[in-house]
Task: structure prediction
Amino acid sequence: MRTLLALLLLATPALAQHKMNSSTFLSNPESIATDGKYLYIADVGKGGNPTAKDTNGIIWRTDLSGNKAERFAEGLHAPKGAVIAGKILFVTDIDRVKGYDLATGKELYNIDFTAENTSFLNDLAVQDNNTLYVSAMDINKLFRIRLSQQSAIEAVPVTGKLQGLNGLFVDNSSGRLYICTFGSMEKSDGEIGYISLKEPNPAFTRVSGRPGRYDGIALLDGYLLVSDWVAFEKSGEIIKVKLSDGSSAVLNKEKIAGPADFTLDAKGDIIVPAMMTGDILHCASR
Result:
Protein backbone atom coordinates (compact mmCIF):
# COMPACT_ATOMS: atom_id res chain seq x y z
CA MET A 1 0.00 0.00 0.00
CA ARG A 2 2.82 2.39 0.88
CA THR A 3 4.49 1.73 -2.49
CA LEU A 4 1.21 2.33 -4.35
CA LEU A 5 0.67 5.60 -2.49
CA ALA A 6 4.17 6.75 -3.37
CA LEU A 7 3.59 5.98 -7.03
CA LEU A 8 0.32 7.93 -7.01
CA LEU A 9 1.99 10.93 -5.44
CA LEU A 10 4.74 10.84 -8.05
CA ALA A 11 2.15 10.68 -10.83
CA THR A 12 0.16 13.71 -9.64
CA PRO A 13 2.42 16.45 -11.10
CA ALA A 14 2.29 14.87 -14.55
CA LEU A 15 -1.50 14.89 -14.46
CA ALA A 16 -1.52 18.57 -13.43
CA GLN A 17 0.21 19.69 -16.64
CA HIS A 18 0.26 18.08 -20.06
CA LYS A 19 0.44 18.79 -23.76
CA MET A 20 -2.97 18.69 -25.45
CA ASN A 21 -2.36 18.79 -29.22
CA SER A 22 -1.10 15.53 -30.72
CA SER A 23 -0.09 17.08 -34.06
CA THR A 24 2.18 19.99 -34.94
CA PHE A 25 -0.23 22.17 -36.92
CA LEU A 26 0.54 25.36 -34.96
CA SER A 27 3.36 27.79 -35.72
CA ASN A 28 3.25 30.53 -33.09
CA PRO A 29 -0.02 30.34 -31.14
CA GLU A 30 -0.60 33.52 -29.14
CA SER A 31 -4.13 33.30 -27.77
CA ILE A 32 -6.99 30.87 -27.12
CA ALA A 33 -10.73 31.37 -26.63
CA THR A 34 -13.50 28.83 -26.14
CA ASP A 35 -17.26 28.75 -26.57
CA GLY A 36 -17.55 25.50 -24.64
CA LYS A 37 -17.71 23.47 -27.84
CA TYR A 38 -14.44 24.33 -29.56
CA LEU A 39 -11.10 26.00 -28.94
CA TYR A 40 -10.25 28.95 -31.19
CA ILE A 41 -6.51 29.54 -31.46
CA ALA A 42 -4.97 32.74 -32.81
CA ASP A 43 -1.74 31.74 -34.56
CA VAL A 44 0.66 34.56 -35.53
CA GLY A 45 1.97 32.27 -38.27
CA LYS A 46 5.32 31.09 -39.52
CA GLY A 47 8.20 33.29 -38.50
CA GLY A 48 6.31 34.58 -35.47
CA ASN A 49 6.71 38.27 -36.35
CA PRO A 50 3.99 40.01 -34.30
CA THR A 51 3.92 43.16 -36.44
CA ALA A 52 4.55 41.84 -39.98
CA LYS A 53 1.74 42.24 -42.50
CA ASP A 54 2.47 38.93 -44.20
CA THR A 55 -1.03 37.36 -44.44
CA ASN A 56 0.18 34.08 -42.89
CA GLY A 57 -1.82 34.43 -39.67
CA ILE A 58 -4.51 31.82 -39.00
CA ILE A 59 -7.37 31.23 -36.61
CA TRP A 60 -7.58 27.51 -35.91
CA ARG A 61 -10.62 25.73 -34.52
CA THR A 62 -10.11 22.47 -32.64
CA ASP A 63 -12.14 20.21 -30.40
CA LEU A 64 -11.86 20.75 -26.66
CA SER A 65 -8.89 18.38 -26.47
CA GLY A 66 -6.88 20.62 -28.81
CA ASN A 67 -7.11 18.21 -31.76
CA LYS A 68 -9.11 17.76 -34.98
CA ALA A 69 -7.81 21.12 -36.17
CA GLU A 70 -9.42 23.06 -39.00
CA ARG A 71 -8.75 26.50 -40.43
CA PHE A 72 -11.49 28.80 -39.17
CA ALA A 73 -10.13 32.03 -40.70
CA GLU A 74 -7.10 32.70 -42.90
CA GLY A 75 -5.27 35.63 -44.45
CA LEU A 76 -4.72 37.51 -41.22
CA HIS A 77 -1.33 38.99 -40.44
CA ALA A 78 -0.50 38.33 -36.78
CA PRO A 79 -3.70 37.54 -34.85
CA LYS A 80 -3.64 37.77 -31.05
CA GLY A 81 -6.00 38.42 -28.15
CA ALA A 82 -8.89 36.07 -28.94
CA VAL A 83 -12.17 36.58 -27.06
CA ILE A 84 -15.81 35.69 -27.64
CA ALA A 85 -18.65 38.19 -27.22
CA GLY A 86 -22.08 36.74 -27.88
CA LYS A 87 -21.72 34.59 -30.98
CA ILE A 88 -18.73 36.46 -32.38
CA LEU A 89 -15.02 35.68 -32.10
CA PHE A 90 -12.89 38.82 -31.90
CA VAL A 91 -9.12 38.98 -32.41
CA THR A 92 -6.57 41.74 -32.69
CA ASP A 93 -4.48 41.87 -35.86
CA ILE A 94 -1.65 44.42 -35.68
CA ASP A 95 -3.70 47.61 -36.19
CA ARG A 96 -7.20 46.18 -36.49
CA VAL A 97 -9.74 44.30 -34.44
CA LYS A 98 -11.62 41.68 -36.43
CA GLY A 99 -14.80 39.81 -35.58
CA TYR A 100 -16.00 36.50 -37.03
CA ASP A 101 -19.36 34.77 -36.87
CA LEU A 102 -18.81 31.59 -34.85
CA ALA A 103 -21.35 29.65 -36.91
CA THR A 104 -20.12 30.55 -40.39
CA GLY A 105 -16.62 32.03 -40.01
CA LYS A 106 -17.78 35.12 -41.90
CA GLU A 107 -15.94 38.32 -41.07
CA LEU A 108 -18.39 40.71 -39.42
CA TYR A 109 -16.06 43.39 -38.02
CA ASN A 110 -12.86 45.01 -39.26
CA ILE A 111 -12.18 47.90 -36.89
CA ASP A 112 -9.36 50.15 -38.05
CA PHE A 113 -6.89 51.53 -35.46
CA THR A 114 -4.37 53.03 -37.89
CA ALA A 115 -5.31 56.56 -36.76
CA GLU A 116 -4.05 55.63 -33.28
CA ASN A 117 -0.51 55.00 -34.60
CA THR A 118 -0.25 51.49 -33.20
CA SER A 119 1.13 48.37 -34.83
CA PHE A 120 0.80 46.05 -31.84
CA LEU A 121 -2.76 45.68 -30.67
CA ASN A 122 -2.57 42.79 -28.27
CA ASP A 123 -5.23 41.58 -25.87
CA LEU A 124 -9.01 41.99 -25.77
CA ALA A 125 -11.47 41.81 -22.88
CA VAL A 126 -15.27 41.68 -22.98
CA GLN A 127 -17.37 43.89 -20.71
CA ASP A 128 -20.61 42.99 -22.48
CA ASN A 129 -21.71 42.05 -25.99
CA ASN A 130 -21.37 45.67 -27.11
CA THR A 131 -18.23 46.75 -25.24
CA LEU A 132 -14.65 45.56 -25.65
CA TYR A 133 -11.33 46.74 -24.23
CA VAL A 134 -8.12 46.42 -26.20
CA SER A 135 -4.47 46.92 -25.25
CA ALA A 136 -1.95 48.58 -27.56
CA MET A 137 1.35 47.19 -26.35
CA ASP A 138 3.68 49.37 -28.41
CA ILE A 139 2.17 52.70 -27.35
CA ASN A 140 1.15 51.66 -23.81
CA LYS A 141 -2.47 52.69 -24.29
CA LEU A 142 -5.84 51.22 -23.45
CA PHE A 143 -8.88 51.60 -25.72
CA ARG A 144 -12.59 50.94 -25.45
CA ILE A 145 -14.64 49.80 -28.44
CA ARG A 146 -18.38 50.42 -28.47
CA LEU A 147 -19.75 48.01 -31.05
CA SER A 148 -23.28 49.42 -30.82
CA GLN A 149 -22.01 52.89 -31.76
CA GLN A 150 -20.56 52.05 -35.18
CA SER A 151 -17.56 50.45 -33.46
CA ALA A 152 -16.50 53.75 -31.93
CA ILE A 153 -12.95 53.74 -30.54
CA GLU A 154 -12.25 55.63 -27.31
CA ALA A 155 -8.92 56.04 -25.53
CA VAL A 156 -9.20 55.25 -21.82
CA PRO A 157 -7.05 57.69 -19.81
CA VAL A 158 -5.18 55.76 -17.11
CA THR A 159 -3.06 57.36 -14.41
CA GLY A 160 0.17 55.42 -14.17
CA LYS A 161 2.61 54.14 -16.77
CA LEU A 162 1.56 50.81 -18.26
CA GLN A 163 4.83 49.73 -19.86
CA GLY A 164 4.15 46.98 -22.39
CA LEU A 165 0.40 46.93 -21.70
CA ASN A 166 -0.75 43.39 -22.36
CA GLY A 167 -3.34 41.13 -20.71
CA LEU A 168 -6.86 42.31 -19.86
CA PHE A 169 -9.77 40.80 -17.94
CA VAL A 170 -13.08 42.47 -17.01
CA ASP A 171 -14.77 41.59 -13.73
CA ASN A 172 -18.22 43.14 -13.90
CA SER A 173 -19.08 42.23 -10.31
CA SER A 174 -16.38 44.56 -8.95
CA GLY A 175 -16.34 47.01 -11.87
CA ARG A 176 -12.64 46.37 -12.38
CA LEU A 177 -10.49 45.80 -15.43
CA TYR A 178 -7.57 43.63 -14.38
CA ILE A 179 -4.36 44.34 -16.26
CA CYS A 180 -0.95 42.77 -16.60
CA THR A 181 1.98 44.33 -18.44
CA PHE A 182 4.96 42.80 -20.20
CA GLY A 183 7.22 45.64 -19.09
CA SER A 184 10.28 46.61 -21.06
CA MET A 185 12.05 44.14 -23.30
CA GLU A 186 15.35 44.65 -21.48
CA LYS A 187 14.32 43.25 -18.10
CA SER A 188 11.53 41.51 -16.23
CA ASP A 189 9.62 44.51 -14.90
CA GLY A 190 5.98 43.94 -15.85
CA GLU A 191 3.21 44.56 -13.31
CA ILE A 192 -0.16 43.14 -12.25
CA GLY A 193 -3.02 45.37 -11.16
CA TYR A 194 -6.37 46.86 -12.06
CA ILE A 195 -8.31 50.02 -12.86
CA SER A 196 -11.87 50.89 -11.88
CA LEU A 197 -14.27 51.02 -14.82
CA LYS A 198 -16.56 53.20 -12.69
CA GLU A 199 -14.17 56.15 -12.83
CA PRO A 200 -13.69 58.44 -15.85
CA ASN A 201 -9.94 58.81 -15.21
CA PRO A 202 -8.92 55.64 -13.38
CA ALA A 203 -5.59 55.06 -11.70
CA PHE A 204 -3.67 51.81 -12.05
CA THR A 205 -3.52 49.99 -8.71
CA ARG A 206 -0.99 47.19 -8.24
CA VAL A 207 -2.13 43.98 -6.57
CA SER A 208 1.28 42.32 -6.44
CA GLY A 209 4.85 43.49 -6.16
CA ARG A 210 6.13 40.50 -8.11
CA PRO A 211 7.78 41.64 -11.39
CA GLY A 212 7.52 39.58 -14.57
CA ARG A 213 7.02 39.49 -18.31
CA TYR A 214 3.29 39.07 -18.09
CA ASP A 215 0.97 38.09 -20.93
CA GLY A 216 -2.45 36.54 -20.15
CA ILE A 217 -4.67 37.18 -17.13
CA ALA A 218 -7.92 35.81 -15.71
CA LEU A 219 -9.84 35.92 -12.42
CA LEU A 220 -10.94 32.76 -10.60
CA ASP A 221 -12.24 32.35 -7.04
CA GLY A 222 -10.51 35.39 -5.57
CA TYR A 223 -7.23 34.75 -7.38
CA LEU A 224 -5.67 36.21 -10.49
CA LEU A 225 -4.15 33.67 -12.86
CA VAL A 226 -1.33 35.21 -14.88
CA SER A 227 1.12 33.86 -17.45
CA ASP A 228 4.73 35.02 -17.15
CA TRP A 229 7.28 34.46 -19.92
CA VAL A 230 10.11 35.13 -17.39
CA ALA A 231 12.60 35.08 -20.30
CA PHE A 232 12.65 34.34 -24.03
CA GLU A 233 13.33 30.65 -23.51
CA LYS A 234 11.68 27.67 -21.85
CA SER A 235 11.39 29.31 -18.44
CA GLY A 236 7.79 30.53 -18.37
CA GLU A 237 5.36 30.16 -15.48
CA ILE A 238 1.67 30.37 -14.68
CA ILE A 239 1.20 32.10 -11.35
CA LYS A 240 -1.73 32.41 -8.98
CA VAL A 241 -2.03 35.75 -7.15
CA LYS A 242 -4.26 36.08 -4.09
CA LEU A 243 -6.22 39.32 -4.35
CA SER A 244 -6.56 39.79 -0.62
CA ASP A 245 -2.83 40.05 0.09
CA GLY A 246 -0.92 39.90 -3.22
CA SER A 247 0.87 36.65 -2.39
CA SER A 248 1.65 34.39 -5.33
CA ALA A 249 2.48 30.79 -6.16
CA VAL A 250 3.63 29.03 -9.33
CA LEU A 251 1.15 26.48 -10.73
CA ASN A 252 3.03 24.71 -13.52
CA LYS A 253 5.41 21.87 -12.70
CA GLU A 254 7.43 22.13 -15.89
CA LYS A 255 8.63 25.40 -17.38
CA ILE A 256 6.81 26.68 -20.48
CA ALA A 257 8.38 28.23 -23.59
CA GLY A 258 6.43 31.46 -24.03
CA PRO A 259 3.17 31.04 -22.07
CA ALA A 260 0.88 33.51 -23.83
CA ASP A 261 -2.80 34.48 -23.63
CA PHE A 262 -4.75 31.57 -22.13
CA THR A 263 -8.37 30.58 -21.54
CA LEU A 264 -10.09 28.57 -18.82
CA ASP A 265 -12.00 25.35 -19.42
CA ALA A 266 -15.31 24.40 -17.79
CA LYS A 267 -13.47 23.21 -14.65
CA GLY A 268 -11.47 26.43 -14.36
CA ASP A 269 -8.25 24.80 -15.51
CA ILE A 270 -5.85 26.70 -17.75
CA ILE A 271 -5.44 26.06 -21.47
CA VAL A 272 -2.35 28.00 -22.48
CA PRO A 273 -0.42 28.31 -25.75
CA ALA A 274 3.32 27.74 -25.57
CA MET A 275 4.12 30.25 -28.27
CA MET A 276 7.77 29.32 -28.79
CA THR A 277 7.12 25.60 -29.29
CA GLY A 278 3.73 25.71 -31.01
CA ASP A 279 1.96 23.64 -28.37
CA ILE A 280 -1.24 23.85 -26.35
CA LEU A 281 -0.88 22.91 -22.68
CA HIS A 282 -3.35 22.05 -19.96
CA CYS A 283 -2.44 23.22 -16.46
CA ALA A 284 -4.49 22.69 -13.30
CA SER A 285 -5.47 25.94 -11.58
CA ARG A 286 -6.22 24.51 -8.15
Observations:
- The helical segments are 2-16.
